[in-house]
Amino acid sequence: xxxxxxxxxxxxxxxxxxxxxxxxxxxxxxxxxxxxxxxxxxxxxxxxxxxxxxxxxxxxxxxxxxxxxxxxxxxxxxxxxxxxxxxxxxxxxxxxxxxxxxxxxxxxxxxxxxxxxxxxxxxxxxxxxxxxxxxxxxxxxxxxxxxxxxxxxxxxxxxxxxxxxxxxxxxxxxxxxxxxxxxxxxxxxxxxxxxxxxxxxxxxxxxxxxxxxxxxxxxxxxxxxxxxxxxxxxxxxxxxxxxxxxxxxxxxxxxxxxxxxxxxxxxxxxxxxxxxxxxxxxxxxxxxxxxxxxxxxxxxxxxxxxxxxxxxxxxxxxxxxxxxxxxxxxxxxxxxxxxxxxxxxxxxxxxxxxxxxxxxxxxxxxxxxxxxxxxxxxxxxxxxxxxxxxxxxxxxxxxxxxxxxxxxxxxxxxxxxxxxxxxxxxxxxxxxxxxxxxxxxxxxxxxxxxxxx
Length: 453
Ligand code: NDP
Ligand code: 2IT
Prior knowledge:
Layout: H1 3-19, H2 24-41, H3 45-49, H4 52-56, E1 61-70, E2 76-87, E3 93-99, H5 105-121, E4 127-133, H6 142-156, E5 165-168, H7 175-189, H8 209-226, E6 236-239, H9 244-255, E7 259-265, E8 268-271, H10 278-289, H11 298-301, E9 306-308, E10 321-323, H12 333-341, E11 346-348, H13 357-365, E12 369-371, H14 373-376, H15 378-392, H16 399-421, H17 431-450
Helix pairs in contact: 1-2, 2-5, 2-17, 5-17, 6-7, 8-9, 8-15, 8-16, 9-10, 12-13, 15-16, 16-17
The chain binds NADPH dihydro-nicotinamide-adenine-dinucleotide phosphate (NDP) and (2Z)-2-iminopentanedioic acid.
């Protein structure tokens, strides 16, 4: 990069910081993308003149609203809900809903920004959005969760629609919550449409949507390893999280002949040197979805495993590959150094922005295979896109068709990353750059076609 490009980039980031005070996650996400895009658009005058990146980094709109609900003890509770509609240049806004006490406007803006690039990478016609609330589903009864979801949708319904904005699940939002929200949407509007994805199979959901994010992250890992003549079979894996993405990533690693050593939750991680096999994964799935339990309970059930508490993360456990599948900034520069020192050869991000900027630099400098979330975890939203197609066509595709499409989509995203991420340094591919540029280009070209709108 020349010094004048450097000045432009710095001025751009400073402007993003100035316009978005107190929003560190959003600034971080834009920062991570901007360096690659600035390099790519050098000499491409239209992208500058039409201020494309500046416009993608300014959401189309942000809707913020009050969500009141009544708990089981008849207390009136008040939460804040949002929907960030970032960009609909290539399709209706699309992206998950997160219920977690850590949700802020900054978090949802970063997620909606990332989603815009991710959805573009899938090759399907979907724009970028994200929503959520600072609601903590932990410890709430089913009826409390139901009342919250109904209240949330009572406001959200006027802003979404099958051709407008199609939410789905994310942290704290799974099949149960989607069911309650879809039921309320249908009740208010009297319409049965594909307004949400991740629905139950009985009412318009798609096969393999539940598995798609975790499976897709492992398919992406497999593509990276195969490009170097390597394979998942025989590899040890450290995985963080124990929710939808983590348990399905673990399942696919096991199916492909790898050995999973760790899983975690917000209280700490378990290390099982014997390997977390399918039976143990099934137990964790039930623990987290039905019993709403904690990972610390694992060691009472499976001897030989240990639990490390205090919110510890699993990155100190030596393994060949790592899959961060819990949340943003769960893997910092020091963690990345530990993984590299312990010989990790590949990292595939199931979560969104799990590695902080210092960690990304460590992985890039070490020249390991490093797939950012916007590429590696795109399988989930891709199958959401396929759910939208099935809903529009009023039909349900077979499991093997959907499995084939997911495999193809992940292979195509990998190929796009190779196309734009080649570095001229032997075999080294900068997957971050590849994903950023490939995701940007399609959205940018659509925006150019529309003029200044
Ligand atoms: P779940 O709610 O099913 O599981 C989340 C897991 O992460 C839980 O184990 C949870 O632990 C842990 N976790 C959440 N917040 C924190 C935190 N602040 N610190 C430590 N651990 C935490 O969510 P998903 O599996 O669906 O989502 C995981 C990640 O994957 C998120 O980054 C999400 O954005 C991303 N993602 C999800 C997709 C999907 O289809 N669901 C698609 C693409 C990306 P605990 O139980 O203690 O809260
Ligand atoms: O981050 C994500 O891609 C998701 N939470 C899934 C979004 C979706 O619309 O399926």
